[in-house]
UniProtKB/TrEMBL annotation:
Record bears the keyword Transferase: no
PANTHER family registered for this protein in UniProt: CRISPR-ASSOCIATED ENDONUCLEASE_HELICASE CAS3, DEAD-BOX ATP-DEPENDENT RNA HELICASE 47, MITOCHONDRIAL
Helicase C-terminal domain: residues covered: 449-607
Keyword annotations from UniProtKB, A to Z: Antiviral defense, ATP-binding, Endonuclease, Helicase, Hydrolase, Metal-binding, Nuclease, Nucleotide-binding
Family matches, as SUPFAM superfamilies: HD-domain/PDEase-like, P-loop containing nucleoside triphosphate hydrolases
Name this protein carries in UniProt: CRISPR-associated endonuclease/helicase Cas3
Matching NCBIfam families: cas3_core, cas3_HD
UniProt record similarity statement: In the central section; belongs to the CRISPR-associated helicase Cas3 family.
Gene Ontology biological-process entries: defense response to virus
Amino acid sequence: MDVQDFWAKSAPKETVQEHTQQLLKRYDCLRERYESRLPVMSERDWELLRIAVQYHDVGKYDLMFQNKIRRALKMEQLEVNCEGETRHNYVSALAIPIKQLKLTDDEARVLLQAVGYHHERLTPLDNKEISKVKQVYESNVLPYRNRIKEELDIEIEDKPRVTTLYKLEQGKRILYEEGELFLRYVMIKGLLHRLDHAASAHVDVELAIDMNVMDNVNEYMNRKYNGKKRELQLYAEQHQDKHLVVMAQTGMGKTEAGLLWVGAEKGYFTLPLRVSLNAMYKRVTDADGIHFSRRIDDGEEATGLLHSSSIEVLEEYYEGNDEALEKVYAQSRQFANKLIVSTIDQILKFPFYYLGFEKEMASMAGNKIIIDELQAYNPHIAALIIRALTLIDELGGSFMIMTATLPDIYLKALQRRMIGSNREMLVHSFIDDSIQRHHVEVSPQSIGDEETILEMIRLGQDRKVLVICNTIKRAKEVFIKLKAFEQIKVSLLHAKFTNRDRDRLERELEAFEKNPDVTGIWVTTQLVEASLDIDFDRLFTEMSPLDSQFQRYGRCNRKGQKEKAVDEINVTVYTNQVSGIGKRSVYDPEIYAKSLSLMHTYLAEPRVLLESDKSQMVAALYDEAALEGTEYKQVFDDTLRELEDMIAYKMNSKKAQELLRNIREVQAIPYRYAGEPEIENAIHDWKTAKTSSQRRKARSRLERYAVGVNPYAAKGRLMEFSLVKQLYYVQADYDEAVGIDLSTFPPDFY
């Protein structure tokens, strides 16, 4: 049968030949610019990757697949010789002429699995499916071998054998235990994913290749600081070829140091919280900031932003230009930018070896990754990060950890795994006791006591006062008590506001902090520990683990520049009836108890707490030997062991994301907003949307009114939207000044 075009995709229309040519174009770019930076890839591996590109979609010549595309295009159906339907990636693998290409057994395994699994499914390939693949290939593809040779410039296997497909059985997949072969496979399959996904999204595989972020940082430093660099920044710049672990307090210029270390290479900069990333993206791309930016007609190329709601942030930069927005968003998702600012769940979940992990892992090879604020992660995630950094070293990548405090248990675990590493790891501490920021007292009272409330009110009349509680419930209690005093402005911020109200409150908080003529009180939770760049005059806080405590102190007299700030107490820590301590609560009770003991030792009387004091206290708290027998150490050790023994290909990407984020929430809209015009309009737009972009925008508008709630805690009070999956109404009171009312929810859930 004469077939005019063999289609690869229906939206937009693209033939297999056109799509494959787009991959080859990106392959040439990647190899030309990055071959020297990827020593883990041999010349033969590059040849195998090219073969994988050429063969990866041969299975789409299957007439059954063509009819599926033609239905979408409303074209006439083709007559088929075999009615069986199977996955095109398996058919593509069978088309590879192993003997003709003179592949070794290892090369055949790598190539067959890279092509055969470039689309992953949890359903294993069984004998019945193998027979069907062979039948489809012989009946619906092989008759077009001359056409395939003409269009793709390749020969396909003319004597297909089922034994070829046995190499794709689940039990035959290439595992980490196979050493170098595993790394070769990860690179070839991972780069095939990158090339395929970039071509499908119609974006370049690499952008701004010629740009060097160090040049931009130097220009920024010249403009703002007359070129003067701090010790940390000089150290990072001088050791670009090493893994670095640096401990540095606030105000040391960590962001600039990290980017100076990245230099001319491709880099990933991670932070724990999205709001911090958004601020980082603005600072890096803004003309008044570092300005690592290359804007062309359809958007930013140099710097990408990547987190679960990054498209909503990017919409602010590309308002009214949907085409540019989609392209910029796609570039970040395909890791194309020279510098990518990201949360770790977007780039470091590959140690779970989920289906398709190779793309993420291969993207780290030969590149640089910065982990900022490692101490902000719980022991589960810290273990994952350490495992990821170990694998990155094996692939020729490099890392820099920048943190205010580094638990000894994390450092020792990493040092053990870096014995025999591909590059040296340097550890250095930058502590400056000449800058005194915090005069601290430890109080035996509760943060909600009447005497404490009166002191907050007194100080809030002529200063900026910040109150940090361990739980939302306690923050609300303190807020309500303070609100009884009408003569002073009091505001509340925590994580259980709708996305719309939380954004508004964060803007109000930042405006309050920046206005020198405004005084008052803000009551918050640990949400502000690492998220907002704020600097208050006076801090009242509940006691918490030391690393959390010292993060909180960084929101008060942040740069140590407030005149006479430490002549009197500017931080009070409350140790009675402390909220959020418990195995099913916010903070680990054993770590809390050790922290409290150290606080009493170091702060028997109020005094200025030096940066060296803080470092010594955290070192004592997280000393590996001292933590022996604690649940904290057991969780960390067990997680690291499980990751190192992880069985590959047993979960999908979504499951890995959930494990990493420890997701226990759904997005729910308080029922008071049901029927609101904005909600109804967004639902209408969702129903009538013709593209995924339109649906995403409609959902984004709905989620502006949503708040995260635990589905188990809200059981019986959630009503799912009929069309919009994983979005609910929740029957709970909601106040725009106080947030959602969780008072009838089980206490363990918030």
